[in-house]
Amino acid sequence: DKTGTLTRGAMTLADFATSEDVDRFLYLVGSVEAASGHPIGKAVALGAEERGVELGQAATAESIAGRGVVGLVDGVEVVVGSAKLAADRGLQVDAASEAQLATYAEAGNTAFLAGWDGEVRGVIAVADSLRETAVDSLQLLRSNGVASVLLTGDNATTAAAIGTALGIERIESELLPGDKSEIVERLQQSGSNVAFVGDGINDAPALATADLGIAVGTGTGVAMEAGDVVLMSGEPASVVTALGMSKATYRTIRQNLGWAFGYNVVAIPLAAAGLLNPMIAAGAMALSSVSVVTNSLRLRRVDPRP
Fold first, then answer.
1. Where do the structural domains in the chain lie, given as residue ranges?
2. How does strand 12-18 pair with strand 212-216?
3. Which residues of 197-208 are buried (b: 16+ CB within 10 A; e: fewer)?
4. What's the pLDDT tens digit per position in 131-179?
5. CATH number of 12-127
6. Nearest CA among 17, 18, 39, 24 for reference residue 76
C-alpha cells in the first residue's frame, strides 16, 4: 500500500484551482470532506479552515471506497473524488480540469476533482511525503530477492511518480479494496509467497488474503485486526526488521531441532542399554535443554536485517 505505509499519511492541502469564489469553493468542499473521516478529507478540511473558511455541517456524506465522497451541504450535492466518480455523478469533466489533474499528479500529489450542479468546479491537490526509510528498505528487500509491487487507489500518474521515486517497477493504481485482494490472490496462484503491508480500512481484504498480512500500528484498528503481524513503528524499516527476525528465528528453530534430534538419537540408546547411570543421564538431559535455550538467546544479538 502507498498512503500511510510508504508515505507518512500526514497529508496537507497543497494547492487547488477553481473558477468559483474561493471561499465558497472551500466551504462546500471542506464541509463534505470533514464529514468523510478519510485522511485526505481531513487534510482538505483543515486546509480550508487554515485559510479562514468556517465550515458547515454536511446533511449527508457518502464515502465511496477508492473513489471519493458525495455529500449534501446547504441543499447542494457536492461530489469530491476521481474523474470516474465525477463522470458517474453526471459532472462534465472539461479539458482544462483534466490538464490540471495531470499537472498536480505528475508532481506526486494526490489530485482529484470537486463539483456540483453538473459541472466540475475545481481541482484539488493533497501532498504527502515519503517515509524516511522507504527507499533504503525497498532497496534492501530487492537485494535479498524480495520483489515489491505497489498497490494503491491513487491515480496512475501519482502512483507512477511515487513508484519511480521508490524504484518499484510494478505499479497497480486506481484500485478498489477488492482489487488489491484479487491481485494478491493472482500472485499466490502464480506460486509466489505474498506478504502485504498496509494500514487502512481499504487494505483489510488484502491483509487477510496474503500469506502474511503486516499491519502498520499507526493505521486503523480494522487493518490491525486483519493482519497477522502488527508493527508498532510506521517506518518501512520495521518490515525489514520483522522479516529479518523471522528468518533468524526460523534458522534457530531448525538448529535447535537438529541438535535435540541428534542428541537424543545418541543418548537414548545408550541410556536404554544401561551404559549411562541415572545421574549422568539426568545431567545429560538437563545439558540438552540448556544448550537449546542458550542457542535461542543468541537471537537477542542477531542483526535483524535479512
1. 12-127, 142-240, 241-301
2. unpaired
3. bbbbbbbbbbbb
4. 889 999 999 999 888 999 999 988 888 888 888 889 998 999 988 888 9
5. 3.40.1110.10
6. 24
Thinking of the domain 142-240, which architecture would CATH place it in? Answer: 3-Layer(aba) Sandwich (3.40)
23 is written with which cell numbers? 471561499
Q: Residue 243: exposed, middle, or buried by beta-carbon count in 10 A (0-12, 13-18, 19+)?
A: buried
Task: Kindly list the catalytic residues.
Answer: 1
Please indicate, yes or no, whether the overall pTM of this predicted structure exceeds 0.85: no
Note every long-range contact of 282-289, with CB atoms under 8 Å and residues 24 or more positions apart, other chains counting.
288/259, 288/260, 288/263, 288/264
| Two domains, one topology: 12-127 and 142-240 | no
Task: Give dist(CA 43, CA 129) in Å, integer.
Answer: 13
Contact between 196 and 184 under an 8 Å Cβ cutoff? The reply is yes
- Between CA 105 and CA 5 the distance in angstroms is 19
